[in-house]
Structure to design on (288 residues):
């Protein structure tokens, strides 16, 4: 079934401005069996842009174009744009933003992405979340405010949200509290995606009715997941185009590793197809 249905990478960052030839990239993605692509924006400076409002809009435009290119190859593509917690720190440290200016910019970005999500130009919000490293208290608060603002959009517009969180024992419980306040329905909760989740969090994420993507680029991790967990998660490459990181695995490399390790067809089908449909409401979220 699945080897027929195809493979999905719900979280990666191709960067046509820093070395990724989009046509070649998409061809390889499709040839490796990719049926669905979750493409997530990077901060403006990753594309050589200063972090101005206009440039945030340019990044969103770029995401729309990347998604259109994927679709022209027959791939179901969902594009996400957001305000990564690391942006909070960099805007203050490198670009001299005041904390309140970061909050205002973050909210404005989330509102614009949501608007484009309603219009069908973008398909969701992300990354938003909380720093997964040590930072200052006020910056953690800023990230939390932006995250909560983004999560209200799930209620208002049914836009999926990809979160990068701190991955501690209380992470899911802390999200549960926000979700309770927003009063999400079970079907809306499916659209909340814990990106870069640790395997140990899978049962709690499942219990909460949310979705999870686990980094799937290491052989040992894939073997461990396959042996130890039921297929209630998705696998992501989190590929970053233009990054100098040697562990930066391309989606097609991940697909071939998954193909070799996840032998059970039923198990693979759930991870590569059913869970992707559930997390992104692929058939109900209309694309232009
Ligand atoms: Zn991330
Ligand atoms: Zn990412």
């Amino acid at each position: 079934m699945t080897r027929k249905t195809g493979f999905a990478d719900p979280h990666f960052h191709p960067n046509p401005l820093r070395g990724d030839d989009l046509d070649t990239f998409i061809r390889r993605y499709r040839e490796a069996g990719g049926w669905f692509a979750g493409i997530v924006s990077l901060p403006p400076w990753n594309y050589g842009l200063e972090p101005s409002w206009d440039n945030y809009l340019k990044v969103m435009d770029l995401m729309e174009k990347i998604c259109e290119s994927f679709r022209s190859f027959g791939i179901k593509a969902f594009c996400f744009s957001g305000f990564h917690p690391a942006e909070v720190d960099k805007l203050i440290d490198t670009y001299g933003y005041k904390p309140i200016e970061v909050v205002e910019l973050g909210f404005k970005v989330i509102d614009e992405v949501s608007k484009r999500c309603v219009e069908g130009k973008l398909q969701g919000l992300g990354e938003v979340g909380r720093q997964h490293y040590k930072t200052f208290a006020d910056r953690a608060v800023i990230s939390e405010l932006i995250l909560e603002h983004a999560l209200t959009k799930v209620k208002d517009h049914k836009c999926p949200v990809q979160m990068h969180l701190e991955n501690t024992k209380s992470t899911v419980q802390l999200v549960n509290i926000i979700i309770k306040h927003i009063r999400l329905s079970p079907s809306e909760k499916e659209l909340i995606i814990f990106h870069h989740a640790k395997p140990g969090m899978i049962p709690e994420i499942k219990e909460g009715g949310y979705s999870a993507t686990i980094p799937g680029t290491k052989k040992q991790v894939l073997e461990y997941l396959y042996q130890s967990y039921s297929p209630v998660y998705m696998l992501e490459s989190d590929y970053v185009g233009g990054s100098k990181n040697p562990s930066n695995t391309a989606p097609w490399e991940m697909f071939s590793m998954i193909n070799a390790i996840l032998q059970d067809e039923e198990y693979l089908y759930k991870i590569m197809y059913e869970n992707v449909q559930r997390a992104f409401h692929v058939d109900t979220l209309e694309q232009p």
